[in-house]
Amino acid sequence: MGCLARGRPRGAHAAHGRPWRGRRPPPGFKLEECATQRNLSPKGRADAITVGEKFRAERVPVGKVVNSPWCRCVDTATLMNVGAIEIDATFSNAFVLSDRRAQLADGARAVIRSWKGPGALLVSTHGANIAALTGGTNPDSGEIVVVKGGAGATFQEIGRIPPPK
Q1: In a domain, 106, yes or no
Q2: For residue range 73-127, what is the model confidence (pLDDT) as tens digits?
Q3: What is the pLDDT of residues 47-64, one digit of tens each?
Q4: Whole-angstrom distance, CA of residue 161 vs CA of residue 20
Q5: What is the pLDDT of residue 150?
């Protein structure tokens, strides 16, 4: 079983507007510099902490945490504090990097399918990535999509955990 957490949540809410306008990164964007990216808002930070607390309270067995290198995803996973984080560029923003969407999805599928446990694999990534992996719709911001291995190119969605209210 895997959990795909969207790293730009209303639950783990990201500030909109500057510096992001449109599909492509703005001039001056640097993946290693969070100030050039859309980042979590104070509500998003608080919600990520709350979700992590709920995971721990419910004793969700998270065996591995993998996420996009984008700052809001790293921050979401860090604030959830449910395990050590492994950064994997294959979970980069497929909406912004639309020219690499198929390559990113193939890489993500390989990472997820290779997970054998123990525990759940938690992936903090972007909505477009999750939609591509599940063949479904873009999840709400902050929503966690729970999947299990499916046949073919998609994973079977078995549930969703809404963001904190």
Answers
A1: yes
A2: 899 999 999 999 999 988 887 676 667 788 888 888 888 888 888 998 999 888 8
A3: 899 999 999 999 999 999
A4: 27
A5: 65
Does a structural domain hold residue 46? no
Distance CA 127, CA 92 (A): 11
Strand partners, 144: 5, 161
Counting the structural domains of the chain, the total is 1
Q: Which region, left, alpha or beta, applies to residue 93 given φ > 0 means left and ψ of -120 to 50 means alpha? A: beta
- Contacts of residue 42, Cβ cutoff 8 Å, sequence gap at least 6: none
Scanning the chain, the segments in alpha helix (DSSP H) are: 42-57, 71-80, 101-114, 127-134
Write out the two tokens for 149: 């291995």
Which pLDDT does position 18 carry in this prediction? 44
Distance CA 64, CA 115 (A): 9
Domain assignment present for 33: no
Please give the residue range of the domain that contains residue 101: 1-14+60-165
Specify whether the CB–CB gap between 44 and 14 falls below 8 A: yes
**Contact (CB, 8 A) for 68 and 7:** yes
